[in-house]
Every structure is written in structure tokens, then in C-alpha cells.
Amino acid sequence: MPIDIGLDELDRLVASGATLVEVLPATEYRDEHLPGAINVPLKTLDKQTASVIPADRPVIVYCWDSL
Q1: Which pLDDT score, from 0 to 100, does residue 64 have?
Q2: What does the buried/exposed string (b/e) look like for 21-39 if buried means 16 or more CB atoms within 10 Å of the residue's CB?
């Protein structure tokens, strides 16, 4: 179940080994992304592209939308 977290919780989870995944389009990710995040664009997310996400630890998914 997804939940919203703040920056303090994000820092704590990443420091504890969670994987940070940004689902932004690749061009937006190249322009600016959170430190340590991996990129799996939402429009390309499938079983193959998700294979880069470690299954043995928590995952934090981030997407920024200006709309």
C-alpha cells in the first residue's frame, strides 16, 4: 500500500538500505533527479525494466508532476 512520506523519512529509509526509484521520463531524470535514485520511466515499467529494482529491500517510488 503506497503512503506519502516526508524528506526526513526518505533520508532515514534510504540510509537503512531502501531503493529510491524515480519514474520520471529519462530526459527529466537526466536534467534533475534525487541523489542515489535509479530511473525506471513509468511508461516503460514492465517486468523486464523492473528487474533493476532489488526485490529484497523496501522501494521508494518518486514522481514529480507539475500539473
Answers
A1: 73
A2: bbbbeeeebeeebbeebeb
